[in-house]
Automatic annotation (TrEMBL):
Transmembrane segments: none annotated. The keyword Transport does not apply. This is Alpha/beta hydrolase. Keywords: Hydrolase. InterPro entries: AB_hydrolase_1 (IPR000073), AB_hydrolase_fold (IPR029058), Sec-Metab_Biosynth_Hydrolase (IPR052897). Residues 61-274 form the AB hydrolase-1 domain. Pfam families: Abhydrolase_6. It comes from the Bacteria. The keyword Hydrolase applies. It comes from Solirubrobacter ginsenosidimutans.
Length: 290
């Protein structure tokens, strides 16, 4: 190409006519892209609206944590239940007395619109058991390695019947009378089948239990008037598996067993969710196909 040809080409490319045509072309491209982008946004918006409009499955599910953990211990279970369409709540409990904890549970239950399945872990089982027959919207109970006391029994009397479980052998009682599990026992016994890195995070948010709870005597237990399910943790070093089996047998619970430590909702969230959904199906929710 000669210098004259190059000059002619440049003049053509940057002539007013070329610039006008180029701007018009780009306007069409940008406008088309904007329409497509807006269309995508509208589709996503209405899809989201449709998802929100779908009513959750019944029953509602309330998850009650026990001592040593807080409501976040249910995270894996919550994700699964929500994905399957259930309305879930996992409140925090003060662990200051059985009366305080039951009052908190009643407060949460009053907030639920419709029938509700209550799930309790460890001492959380004692909280929901203490509801008695005075929870009209509760339709069933699921015990996860949990205490299922009968009328006249107390947690302290039960725990004093034999040697302390490995996870509870070295409890530290603070000045306010709350009991803490030492880190080594928490990692090696309380949550022995959870990755140690995750277990230390759980230890950092440990929820201690007041000594006063040990003397609180159970009234009429809720499991005598409600259908119950029980998950036995076969490798539990906090609540003896045989004690769990005895609780389950006494209440006539539908029972499953898994090879878990005391925190199956953390180490085996899907198995725990399976049992909860089985219970939900039995009391009224449509079965979930997986």
């Amino acid at each position: 190409m000669t210098a004259a040809d190059l000059a002619s080409e440049l003049n053509l490319r940057f002539s007013p006519a070329f610039r006008t045509e180029y701007r018009s072309s780009m306007t069409i491209v940008i406008a088309f892209g904007t329409v497509c982008s807006d269309d995508d946004r509208h589709r996503k918006h209405w899809a989201s609206r449709r998802e929100r409009a779908m009513p959750p499955k019944e029953p509602n599910i309330v998850l009650v944590h026990g001592a040593g953990v807080d409501g976040s211990c249910w995270s894996g279970v919550i994700e699964r239940l929500q994905a399957d369409g259930f309305q879930v709540r996992a409140p925090q409990f003060p662990m200051s007395s059985l009366a305080d904890d039951v009052a908190r549970l009643r407060q949460v239950l009053e907030f639920q619109d419709g029938p509700t399945l209550v799930v309790g872990h460890s001492y959380g089982g004692q909280i929901m058991t203490a509801l008695g027959a005075e929870a009209p919207n509760v339709v069933g109970l699921v015990y996860v390695a949990a205490f299922g006391l009968d009328e006249g029994e107390s947690l302290g009397a039960l725990l004093s019947q034999g040697p302390a479980a490995p996870a509870l052998a070295h409890l530290i009682t603070d000045a306010r009378g709350f009991n803490w599990i030492p880190e080594d026992d928490f990692v090696n016994h309380f949550a022995a089948d959870v990755d140690p890195t995750k277990t230390r995070v759980l230890y950092a948010v440990q929820q201690p239990l007041s000594t006063s709870v040990l003397g609180d005597v159970m009234g009429a237990p809720a499991w005598k008037s409600l259908p119950s399910w029980y998950l036995v943790a076969q490798n539990d070093e906090t609540l003896a598996p045989d004690a769990e089996r005895q609780f389950a047998a006494r209440m006539g619970a539908t029972t499953v067993e898994i090879p878990s430590s005391h925190v199956p909702m953390i180490s085996h969230p899907n198995e725990v969710a399976d049992l909860i959904e089985k219970a939900a199906n039995a009391v009224g929710a449509p079965a979930v196909t997986r």
